[in-house]
Amino acid sequence: SRVWIMITLYEADLSRVNVGDAVNMKLPYDPTKKFAGTINYIYPEIDLNSRTVQARVEINNNDGFLRPGMFADIDIVKDLGETLALPVDAIIDTGMRSLVFIQTDSLVFEPKEIEIGPRVGGFVPVLGGLNSGDHVIINANFLIDAESKLQAVLQRSDSPILGGHEG
Hints:
Blueprint: E1 2-10, E2 22-27, E3 30-42, E4 52-60, E5 73-77, E6 85-87, E7 92-93, E8 98-105, E9 108-116, E10 123-128, H1 141-155
Antiparallel strand pairs: 1-4, 2-3, 2-5, 3-4, 6-10, 7-8, 8-9, 9-10
């Protein structure tokens, strides 16, 4: 009548997940069927290769629909409070830092480094780096980033590929 669902948590998310947190579960092949449960145990061991931790969720299964080995999509229900957030597509992740493009003039865009939190749905909370009134570009970041790289190359006077030298 009750089943345990094993979920994988990233090490970086451990400080935000607690025993007793509510979860919503759906099956990828039948999103109309929904289940609710709670995290009732977080295992103490971290997998050294994946940097993840297993947690156990207990869910009601009175109808016997859920079976061992099934895959599921789990959402952990948390009130994270109110914060500034940006769509994931607005952020350029360089691997070392997170950047957004700020519109400083009608046709001028400048990269700005920001500090972000964990992804929540299609959004990322901004923890620092933006000011009130900043106009963040949320579409076409790939094109802006590519254009800024092209401009950097064009400004180098010693670029033989683009004919930086006269003569």
